[in-house]
């Protein structure tokens, strides 16, 4: 896990969130210090958690473009009651439009993670940030975008929790069922949530001739999108 610097999230007075059906549209004035992509993410999570203007936020000490190990510029963590709701900043174009694809912002996604609360929240939150950085690093290095209804299977046998004792060793992915897709000044962004999965579950997908159908089956069998390190395997 990379090093993170804890700080309070800053908000721009120039963001203008507009709800449009099943997506959030954000328009922003073009100023030298504007970050319309960042503001768009803020606006959607402001809608979800209006009572949390300053959630936990972990920012990278040395930015990836300057040789730092962590590709995400930041990760915010919101208190969602029974679980923590993480959201990444950095897979979409946060500050300026750099790609030639006018339809999508950056990779067209940001990652989310819903972690069930425990007695070890502080350590698990930091570990959760490390997991998001790990997946983002894979995307940056390979150019392969992680989309909904896919799986991440490294064949590791240790848990993805901080103590590495959980039966959950990898992830299934899905469209976040809380955060709406964004239509930002830089293009579209979808929130892809990571859901912890056991080795047996992931192996069943990996060995299946119809892996996409197997992923959908597992997603349907899960009661929700919350990662519970203590849950038993469905397989």
From TrEMBL:
Residues 68-232 form the Suppressor of fused-like domain. GO terms for cellular component: cytoplasm. It comes from the Bacteria. This is Branched-chain alpha-keto acid dehydrogenase subunit E2.
